[in-house]
Amino acid sequence: MQLKKVIHHLSEHGLNVELIGDDSIEISQVSGLDIAKKNEISFLTDKKYLPHLRSSLASAVLLTKQNVGDYSFTQVVVENPYYAYALVAQLLNPFKISNGHVHTSAVIDSSVKVGLSTSIAANVVIEKEVTIGSNSIISAGTVIEESVIIGNDCKIGANVTICHNCVIGDNVIIEAGAVIGGDGFGWANNKGKWIKIPQIGQVIIGNNVSIGNNVTIDRGAIQNTIIEDNCIIDNQVHLGHNVEIGSGSAIAGQAGFAGSTILGKNCTVAGQVGFAGHLKTVDNCHFLAKSGVTHDINEPGAYAGFPAIKATDWQRNSVRTRNLDKIVKQIKQLEKQVELLSK
Questions:
Q1: Contact 129, 145 (CB under 8 A)
Q2: Beta 155-156 vs 137-138: how paired, if at all?
Q3: Along the 343 residues of the chain, how does pLDDT read in single tens digits?
Q4: Which of 33, 30, 90, 24 minimizes the C-alpha distance to 67?
Q5: CA atoms within 13 A on the CB side of 98
Q6: Is 318 strand, coil or helix?
Q7: Rounded CA separation 10/83 (Å)
Q8: Are 59 and 38 in contact (CB under 8 A)?
Q9: Which of 212, 254, 272, 305 could lock 235 by a disulfide, CB 3.0 to 4.6 Å apart?
Q10: DSSP 252-315
């Protein structure tokens, strides 16, 4: 498509665009600066890629005003090139749209209510009293247990399991293999014997949430497990029973939340971060990779280490830890000097 159509798409999403070059060139795909070819559009967000600008073969590049220069490609100047890149990538690689087809092998209870233009693929099982909104996609092999509610414009991947009584909002993506609403880890011990506690809460997922492959979200023990609007959750994340994730939060792969953890709004959680149960964080907290959160976090900011502390403190401690051997040797040398002086 012509670049002018791409620019119009960005403008429709509220971006102010300044063009330096030709808007009639054809754009076929997005690509990285160093591997882009003719008729591809690239982007610059990190200064370390500045050397690739001069040699890039891209036909157009998304960049900020600060990085404008004398280049052979057309420059599309925007405030946030990475956001613009995401919009262009969506335009050139549109998401799958529901065709409204229901496969003959799907097993659907007669009480199920399905909205207009929702498609249901092969070998899907949908139990009684389920409600699914319009324009949603239910992919092959998915199981939806009784009394589940799924909103409009949702995309449910292959072999997903959504257990009974879960509620899922509009425009939710759940990738392949995820289990939503499985039993939480609730057991009582009596003289060495474990007794299973029925988990009677729900999982409530808000609007515009994305859940990655093989994520497991346990249903509440008594209260509900809640994921608020506009959250994104990466692959292989585990949320225990009664966990609450505040709106706008982002969680990277292999993070784990023990039961009754409450994460504030607009938080970010890097890979392999672990949360102990029954703790709460305020809004706008950011946890670095492999952090261990063992206590309430009452101030916004960046945290790291085990147990998690302010990232600046952790960085200072890390430097000191690396110097421990040197410090020990210096102490031994000082001890010898003191011993000589005391004779």
A1: no
A2: parallel
A3: 999 999 999 999 999 999 999 999 999 999 999 999 999 999 999 888 888 888 999 999 999 999 999 899 999 999 999 999 999 999 999 988 898 999 999 999 999 999 999 999 999 999 999 999 999 999 999 999 999 999 999 999 999 999 999 999 999 999 999 999 999 999 999 999 999 999 999 999 999 999 999 999 999 999 999 999 999 999 999 999 999 999 999 999 999 999 999 999 999 999 999 999 999 999 999 999 999 999 999 999 999 999 999 998 888 888 887 888 888 888 888 888 887 787 6
A4: 33
A5: 26
A6: helix
A7: 10
A8: yes
A9: 212
A10: -TT-EE-TT-EE-TT-EE-TT-EE-SS-BB-SSEEE-TT-EE-S-B-S-EEEETTTTEEHHHHH
Determine whether 101 is an active site residue. Answer: no
Residue tagged active-site, from 13, 238, 241, 278: 241
DSSP 157-179: -TT-EE-TT-EE-SS-EE-TT-E
Backbone angles phi, psi at 306, to 5 degrees: -135, 120
For the chain, the farthest-separated pair of C-alpha atoms sits apart, in whole angstroms, at 97
15 is written with which tokens?
């971006």
